[in-house]
Amino acid sequence: MDTSPLIYLIIYLLYYLILRKFKFEFFNLILNKKGSMGKCSHCGTFGHNYVKCPQLTREQVLEIKKKKKEEKEKKLEAKKKKLEEKEKMKMSDFTIHNNNDYEIAVYWGFNTSDLLTRLQYIPAFESKVSRIRKSCHRIVAFPSLEVISGNSNDAESSLTYAQNTDQYIVAFDFYMKDFPDSSVELHLPYQPKKTEIDEWKEYGLKSHYLLKEIEKLTSIKKDGNVIVHKKYENIETFIDMIQDISMPNNCSDVDKERAGIPSILTNIT
What we know:
- By secondary structure, the chain is α+β, with helices and mostly antiparallel strands.
- It is 35% helix and 20% strand.
- The protein folds into four domains: 1-53, no CATH class; 57-89; 94-186, Immunoglobulin-like (Sandwich); 196-266, no CATH class.
- It has a five-stranded antiparallel beta sheet, with no helix packed on it. Strands 4-1-8 form a three-stranded mixed beta sheet, with no helix packed on it.
- A hairpin with a 2-residue loop joins strand 9 and strand 10.
- Helix 4 crosses helix 6.
- It starts with a helix and ends in a 10-residue tail after the last helix.
């Protein structure tokens, strides 16, 4: 008796039962058919997705679609915010070209505060680079004499200055998020504010400087003594009088700078 048809029937029944029991899962796993449907996110069955799931009504499918869309938008928004925060934290170079005949003091601060901290000095006709965060930093540049600390030669290490006030003369003041370029050229004619005492100091210091220059041109120093050249013997008494003029102890390089004569601040020798 030929048993082949019976064997084929048994194999077919087993195959049918397996497919029915596992709802095509076994078939998809074994064959790993390329491009076949994955598992339904609702019922867990292979061969369809939640849109075609027989267990869901149309309203339920639309609700799931809406929820998935909202979740996707939230993820995209979170990613966008993360990138924006990363961009805000980036440091960039900012170059200041001081095209003035005086030194400037550069300060930095935050957009949310009037407190400024000294960053660096830039001598006359020189340029320097600062590292800044354009998103949150404010950069302010003053003529150094505007912000000198007391009788010292240094600008204030920190100060409070509200933008667009007349507290100081300012060469540059910007919230960097509003400044489009990566460098700036500074041109600002500047005359320090002078009190009556400052004007008298200037008068005295300039006069003393000129007298000392005349002394240098007409004499030499030897063993601590001033010896007038022979051709200037007729003004020897005048030169001797210059020796009797002493500089006040409280006269600072700031006073000299304000008077427009050589000082440490201008590096003139």
